[in-house]
Amino acid sequence: MNISALQKERAKYQPKLPKSLIGAAKLVVGAKTESVADQKEIAELFPNTYGMPLITFEEGNEKSDKDPVNVGVILSGGQAPGGHNVISGIFDGIKKINSKSKLYGFLGGPGGLVDHDYIELTAEIIDEYRNTGGFDIIGSGRTKLEEHKQFDKGLEVARDLSLNALVVIGGDDSNTNACVLAEYYAANNAGVQVIGCPKTIDGDLKNEMIETSFGFDTATKVYSELIGNIQRDANSAKKYWHFIKLMGRSASHIGLECALKTQPNITLISEEVAKEKQTLGEIVEYMAGVIAKRAEHGYNFGVALIPEGLIEFIPEMKILIGELNDLLAEGTKTAEIFQNIKKSYRPEWIIEKISPESAAVFKSLPLGIANQLTLDRDPHGNVQVSLIETEKLLGEMVKVKLDEMKKEGSFSGKFGAQYHFFGYEGRCAAPSNFDADYCYSLGFTASVLISEGKTGYMASVRNLTAAADEWIAGGVPITMMMNMEKRHGHMKPVIQKALVELDGAPYKYFIKKRGEWANSTQFIYPGPIQYFGPTEVCDQTTETLKLEQA
């Protein structure tokens, strides 16, 4: 395996652990839990794993000999920096339990469990991937574990390998599947535990027990470096407005964090748009207003950050997309008819099938954007917002608005737009020291939960703005995070996505500062991730966490 000088040095890095995980961990049982919403429905669906207590680990004194455990691990969904360190933490943790313990990796995501496609992860393999980015050690996938026949196929290989537990490393939907799997195995006395780990760069898998999802810190640092580079370019050339769409399907956590790191001129927050019921026209008017005011000072340049999922939060667009999701839902007759219609006739057919209000919105959109809204749905039955060029939609509409303002005499500047989408650039970066430590601790925590016989839990590591040895490790029942939502036209139990809290400290600070940032060129240029050097430079966490826990 060819490796860079940086990777050679990173391989030597020993991630830090909470004190409670270094020696013998003592389990402390906390309060019983209930789901965040729809308690009756969730309790009925998960009778064996609902209402379990919170768990924390403290430093213990007694070390007891424990039997070896065999564990399977699955990487599920999109990549996030630090996945390899979660696996390293699991490996080291189960070897600490008993040196004869074994770790198996299912290849290509959840599909590897169903298809019995796996490898044993030995020390020789693990050591090549410590502190590296990506999921290439075993690969990932988006197979949904939802059907009993899939669970049974997984149980076959679990028995063949004498697995005590499965660890599912994924986001909200992947951990929902882990919860369903844990319930099924518990109901059938299968003897296989299921533990989840919170992964997603989007940052929308969080609550009081999961302070942040892994990969968010690294990804936002990567994006912020790129934004800083563009800001410096804009401030040098002084002639372009850069419209930057940032990954984050349902929440604006990435956009908000990057704004706090870089101080751009415009940052749109989807959750604010939804609360204020801002129309597409109002958003364009706001952006054009900032651009015009900067032009008065001779600043015909700037940077605007746009969350990937913005379009679904604009009221009239949300209604339109909801109608399109129902109309084009997988397995419906209308979806089948739509696929057999010539592409040139599809817009007209759509307009006839949706409400007059939504039809008017649909007709007002540029043809390219309208067509993007009708593309194949994602595995959850939703429009693929990453394929919608919202940044270009806004840029084109802003240009039209500025042309109108120029005719009216309220804009005399120049406007040129450049478009960017930062997504894949951040998913497989080498993890920051924070993510390297956090992910390793999550994996190690999962191993301790397994040794304690727990199932249906997600590994939790809290107190993250403190030094790593003061972090609090434990477990949170996955059912605690769940509610009922409509998917593919049916109500299903899923982990509730955590959106940006408009009464939270990070957003309030942003609101306080955004007017100042709009009119200035006081950009911040964060530069690349620092792996070596002073703790205050290398181990810093996100601005979001700093403000939340100030």
Structure in words:
- This protein has a domain at 30-58 and 67-215 and 433-495: Rossmann fold, CATH 3.40.50.
- 43% of the residues lie in helices and 16% in strands.
- By secondary structure, the protein is an alpha/beta fold.
- The chain has a nine-stranded mixed sheet with strand order 1-2-13-12-7-6-3-4-5, sandwiched between helices. A four-stranded parallel sheet has the order 9-10-8-11, sandwiched between helices.
- It has helices at residues 5-11, 19-22, 39-45, 83-97, 110-114, 123-129, 148-160, 172-187, 216-237, 253-262, 270-275, 280-296, 315-327, 333-339, 346-353, 356-364, 367-372, 390-408, 433-451, 505-519, 535-538, 543-548; strands spanning 24-32, 53-60, 70-75, 102-106, 118-120, 165-170, 193-198, 241-246, 266-267, 302-307, 417-422, 457-462, 472-477, 482-487, 490-495.
- Helix 4 (83-97) packs parallel to helix 19 and helix 12 (280-296) packs across helix 18 (390-408).
- The protein has 22 helices and 15 strands.
- Helix 8 links the parallel strand 6 (165-170) and strand 7.
Topology of this structure?
Elements: H1 5-11, H2 19-22, E1 24-32, H3 39-45, E2 53-60, E3 70-75, H4 83-97, E4 102-106, H5 110-114, E5 118-120, H6 123-129, H7 148-160, E6 165-170, H8 172-187, E7 193-198, H9 216-237, E8 241-246, H10 253-262, E9 266-267, H11 270-275, H12 280-296, E10 302-307, H13 315-327, H14 333-339, H15 346-353, H16 356-364, H17 367-372, H18 390-408, E11 417-422, H19 433-451, E12 457-462, E13 472-477, E14 482-487, E15 490-495, H20 505-519, H21 535-538, H22 543-548
Parallel strand pairs: 3-4, 3-6, 6-7, 7-12, 8-10, 8-11, 9-10
Antiparallel strand pairs: 1-2, 2-13, 4-5, 12-13, 14-15
